[in-house]
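Structure in, sequence out. Go:
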């Protein structure tokens, strides 16, 4: 349930302001992000012999976890006098950056890899007025986005912007608040690796670190899970350190397993997510940690990628 005061939702960045590196007096650009449900998963628990919970990040305003980091990054960009933001994106970052830029009155440039963005995400970015351009692949798009930042014309709002991870770490705070303890295991999709690093950051600042399972597609370049179709993870080294610290591991899962988990989430737990969001569940099903308390992060809503249903 979202925290409210006198009937007004408290922005995520205000709720955790003492734990975020925002400039004093910075205006918070918010669309009502955060405070997403942590749902018990009884049928998954029965299948795995574990106590499974689902952190439903599809409940964020633009339908994905990216909004947690974007509220912080765009708020600081506005405070710093920026006029434009830029990102390279397979879709979710684009939708979030575009929406928060529009809310702040900033221009947004989205550089997308050719053939790797679901229709729902592209529609979101265009609907709120972002400029969308196509590049050959994600790596080329990110390189150009970084060049534009270096020239001083745009603020980069990919997860290479540390404020993005600062905002996303709040999901770890919420999990501990909702469970009353750190889970034994946290399983989540692994594309660029920024979200895993953000969770590690949040747990480090709190009550301890769960075992982290980073679920990547076996075929990163051609996976049907378009949100994690990233060949060169930008945070690969930091992910490796977080996994070593937590006793975790990278789990490679085939598309068939990801899609099976995606269908299972919808038909047995009632959550319609985009396929990539089910990667953590696929990793859990591949090697269930019986008796453990497990949180699977479900990163984005199914309406992000409606073509996947067909």
């Amino acid at each position: 349930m979202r925290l409210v005061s006198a009937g007004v939702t408290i922005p995520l960045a205000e709720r955790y302001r003492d734990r975020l590196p925002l400039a004093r007096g910075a205006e918070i650009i918010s669309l009502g992000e955060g405070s997403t449900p942590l749902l018990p998963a009884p049928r998954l628990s029965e299948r795995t012999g574990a106590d499974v919970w689902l952190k439903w990040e599809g409940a964020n305003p633009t339908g994905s976890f990216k909004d947690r980091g974007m509220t912080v990054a765009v708020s600081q960009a506005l405070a710093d006098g920026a006029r434009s933001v830029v990102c390279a994106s397979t879709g979710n970052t684009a939708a979030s950056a575009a929406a928060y830029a529009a809310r702040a009155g900033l221009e947004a440039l989205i550089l997308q890899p050719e053939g790797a963005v679901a229709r729902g995400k592209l529609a979101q970015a265009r609907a709120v007025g972002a400029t969308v351009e196509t590049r050959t692949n994600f790596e080329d798009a990110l390189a150009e986005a970084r060049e534009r930042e270096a020239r001083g014309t745009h603020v980069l709002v990919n997860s290479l912007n540390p404020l993005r991870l600062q905002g996303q770490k709040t999901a770890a705070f919420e999990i501990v608040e909702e469970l009353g303890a750190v889970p034994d295991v946290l399983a989540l999709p692994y594309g660029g690796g920024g979200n895993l690093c953000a969770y590690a950051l949040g747990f480090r600042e709190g009550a301890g670190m769960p075992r982290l399972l980073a679920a990547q597609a076996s075929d990163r370049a051609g996976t049907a899970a378009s949100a994690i179709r990233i060949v060169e993870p930008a945070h690969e080294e930091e992910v490796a350190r977080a996994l070593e610290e937590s006793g975790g591991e990278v789990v490679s899962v085939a598309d068939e397993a990801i899609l099976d988990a995606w269908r299972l989430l919808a038909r047995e737990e009632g959550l319609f997510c985009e396929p990539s969001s089910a990667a953590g569940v696929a990793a859990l099903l591949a090697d269930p940690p019986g008796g453990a308390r497990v949180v699977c992060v479900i990163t984005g809503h199914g309406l992000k990628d409606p073509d996947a249903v067909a």
